[in-house]
Specification:
By secondary structure, this protein is α/β, with parallel strands linked by helices. Helix content is 41%, strand content 19%. The longest helix has 16 residues.
């Protein structure tokens, strides 16, 4: 069997759950990501693809099946220890890079809070190599993935295991020119609005919060900016679009920022907060 016939076979299998267009794309990605172009289609490879297709049919995200997620022109290794990078987070990175282009220092200190796969600090570092980049996450498993990605992509990032919700966390005497975060922001009460694949496979610790509106991490990060963010620094956060105004007010109430703005993403959703000291 050649690649074309195998892809056709996978597509037909996937049409039991997905429409024709989606089945075609999924089959194409599975073949491209799991079989190097110069590999002969052996019975072992056919069996591997069969297992992968069954995982897709069981609601497992494609990125976890292939252990690959494309983000900001880079290829990241992912598994169920980390969130799958989303396009809206690429827009967060884009805004950070645009800010650096206009307000660059010799070696700006940048911190990413809740780094997961490391996609944010690695993407920024690849674009702005002179940044002194650090990243925090509570999950040891996630940090292993982030370190793997940084090493494979040739990005120098300092990774720290920490829980920012705990008092005395991290090394609080550090100050940063930029703080970035895509924190957990979905209240457990909104769990039933999520897709089955997300609930079953993506790490709950990176998605959900215990409080009513999903604001606890924004409140903590806004507070930390008083001691962690330089006087002329900037904070960039991905938002829960449904509570963007509440989050903006949290940062305004700190009384340390010259401006706090909410930017819309390409879908017109209130997705990115930019707070300038």
């Amino acid at each position: 069997m050649d690649r074309r016939l195998l892809q056709k076979s996978v597509k037909e299998k996937l049409t039991s759950k997905y429409d024709d267009n989606e089945s075609s794309k999924l089959a194409q990605y599975l073949i491209e990501d799991l079989i190097p172009i110069d590999h002969k289609i052996s019975s072992a490879i056919i069996n591997e693809i069969e297992i992968a297709a069954n995982r897709i049919l069981a609601d497992e995200p494609l990125q976890y099946v292939t252990n690959r997620a494309d983000f900001y022109g880079l290829q990241f290794y992912v598994n169920e220890a980390v969130l799958i990078p989303r396009p809206e987070t690429e827009e967060l990175v884009y805004n950070v890079i645009q800010y650096l282009n206009k307000n660059d220092k010799d070696s700006p200190k940048v911190l990413d809070i809740g780094t997961g796969s490391g996609c944010i600090p690695i993407a920024v570092k690849k674009e702005k190599e002179h940044c002194d980049m650090s990243a925090i996450d509570i999950s040891t498993s996630a940090l292993k993935i982030a370190i793997r990605n940084a090493n494979s992509l040739g990005a120098e990032v300092t990774f720290i295991r920490d829980n920012i919700l705990e008092n005395g966390s991290f090394y609080g005497n550090q100050r940063y020119d930029i703080i970035i975060s895509n924190p957990p922001y979905i209240p457990y009460s909104e769990r039933d609005k999520m897709s089955a694949s997300t609930i079953k496979h993506e790490p709950n610790i990176a998605l959900f919060t215990e409080d009513e509106y999903g604001l606890i991490f924004y409140q903590r990060i806004a507070s930390l900016c008083k001691s962690w963010l330089e006087e002329d620094g900037a904070a960039f956060l991905e938002l829960n679009e449904f509570h963007a105004d509440k989050i903006k007010n949290i940062f305004i109430e700190q009384g340390i920022f010259k401006s706090v703005d909410v930017l819309e993403d390409m879908q017109g959703k209130q997705r990115i907060l930019v707070a300038l000291r």
